[in-house]
Amino acid sequence: MERILVIGCSGQIGSELVLALRKKYGSNNVFATDIKNPTDEIREGGPFQNLDVLDYNNLLHYVVRHNITQVYNLAAVLSGNAEKIPLQAWDINMKALMNTLQVAQESQAKKLFWPSSIAVFGPTTPRHNTPQLTVMEPNTVYGISKLAGERWGEYFYSKYGVDFRSVRYPGLISYKTEPGGGTTDYAVEIFFEAIKKNRYECFLSEDTALPMMFMDDAIKNTIKLMEADGDSLSLRSSYNMAGISFTPKEIASEIRKHKPDFEITYKPDFRQAIADSWPASIDDSVARKDWGLHDEFGIGKMSAHMLKKIEEKIAG
Ligand code: AKB
Known about the structure:
316 residues, six-stranded parallel β-sheet, Rossmann fold, 15% strand, alpha/beta, binds 2-amino-3-ketobutyric acid, 12 helices, three-stranded parallel β-sheet, UDP-galactose 4-epimerase, domain 1
């Protein structure tokens, strides 16, 4: 039986991934940790521990004591926040990864999931249908840390047999826990503001296309990659994951199908330069071929679902 550790259970991905894993593997086999308070559902639904991934000894003890067999390490400072504290963000992002790679090397928890991002690409990368293997010159701290992380993951796989698995997440769209400090956060905020105020001021310009994915698809595919036969994985760096590409203007017009009076204005800030350096769309055919990446939510289904769920959430 797998015993799974999720580091970063209080974040946007962790708060949903823990619930999906507990459903699948049993509540007592999924250990949730974070330095921030989790949702009640996570705290009450199975083991939770306040644990700092930057504290190597504590992490190793925890993994050994609980006979953990696989780890999802979701701890990271996202792109927007990382630009405000570049050196600190580099230290946190890299140390969090290196600690889990070393724990995997030293313990029985050999299987490690670590999220990379579309941020590994940069202004010299082909912007449309970006291939799996291409020019990668990220110019953000977050992107540089993700690219370095991918290289380290592959290194630990080939040198030390760590079963490292990763995807390059596009922007993730969800309603349970809001994201914090990313460039793609607008695509979540816009739905909350549409319900609360029927208007939104967007920090990206109207024609900025970026790849995005609804959280249900992201979680399903993440678990699918972790369950895939290792022999079918031709890559041990990180797989492109495309999702759906759209602009703020396009998402606003989707919202107007449900809320005809919805208004949007545009006031690009420092995150515009980050978005401009990322791909507009991605080719994820390698992941589809190797381990069956498959997503179900298009822009229409995702928008309708977001609006309905946020409305219910706000109504309590
Ligand atoms: C961010 O915007 O920083 C993240 C990402 C694309 O990795 N959502």
